[in-house]
Structure formats: structure tokens, C-alpha cells
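User: Structure please.
Assistant: Input sequence and predicted structure:
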Amino acid sequence: MYKDTDFVSRQSHELNYILQRYGLPPDAAHRRRLLALLDDFHAAADYAPHHRADFYRYLEQHLGPAVGAAA
């Protein structure tokens, strides 16, 4: 069974954490971009069941080569 923490929420604090993880400022414009990417991620059947780790992989593929996880 999956836990809630296995998935990415749309809450500001979660989005801010992800932005900081990828070295981006946690401002409104970046949160909007991240929400759009999250919507696209959820629409992509290849990533089902849409776990957090898969979202991070999706971000690395869609944010460009200059952005990578700080771990």
C-alpha cells in the first residue's frame, strides 16, 4: 500500500521544498511552472502510479540539463 508521502502534493510548502531541492527560488512564478509540470506528469501514463521519485525523474528530464537534484 502506498503512503501519502510517496506522492507530491500541490501545497505551497511542498512546491517550495521541490524548488529549493532543484536550486530554484520558491517564488510564485516558479510554483506556477512546477504546478503545470505536475499536471503534465499526472497526465503521463508512463509515470503511473506517479510516485515522488518518478516526479523527480520527470523534472530532471523537463527542466533542462542545468538543473539537477541537490540530493
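The mean pLDDT is 86.
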